[in-house]
Amino acid sequence: MTVRPEDFRAAGGRFASGVTVVTAAHAGKVYGITASAFSSVSLDPPQVLVCVARTSKLHEMVVEGKTFAVSILANDQRELSELFAKPDREPVESFVELDVPHVLHATGTPVLRGCVAFFDCTLARAYDGGDHSIFVGDVRAAGLGAERPPLLYFNRGYRGITDL
Ligand SMILES: Cc1cc2nc3c(=O)[nH]c(=O)nc-3n(C[C@H](O)[C@H](O)[C@H](O)COP(=O)(O)O)c2cc1C
Which fold is adopted by the domain 5-159? Predict the structure, then answer.
């Protein structure tokens, strides 16, 4: 039995998620991608995971650099989500080149300013996840940022929170 890719995508699109930018730093370069495949994993030890496409430039940087950071975007950071989802980008020496305000914490991997929360990690394990890798990170620093609602993604579109 095979599942059609369009059915897989359509079903996955019905899962409402937050939006993160996952960043990496290696060999004097930094890079980031928009990612919704993020989850908290463990409290003791503190661990989170992200799923990153093997084809992504971020993949090699995390494997080589052994760190990553997760910035959970606020609802006014949609432009950043779009910027970090663009194909055919290259790693840069600093996000200053992209006009993206950021801050460095424990691992030196950039965390985006204005995000609602962040996790700064060293790579604990990389698991095979088909055409993605599942990167589990040991959280070296975590914190809160902007007191704003988060940006959400659902059914291939950006959304905001509405209280029921
Ligand atoms: C809302 C949203 C969520 C995404 N989630 C992921 C994800 O969890 N993992 C991933 O590898 N790519 C994800 N992407 C795609 C990457 O952002 C995109 O492929 C990447 O930035 C392109 O750069 P690259 O060619 O270096 O991979 C997502 C894109 C969007 C718009």
Answer: Pnp Oxidase; Chain A (2.30.110)
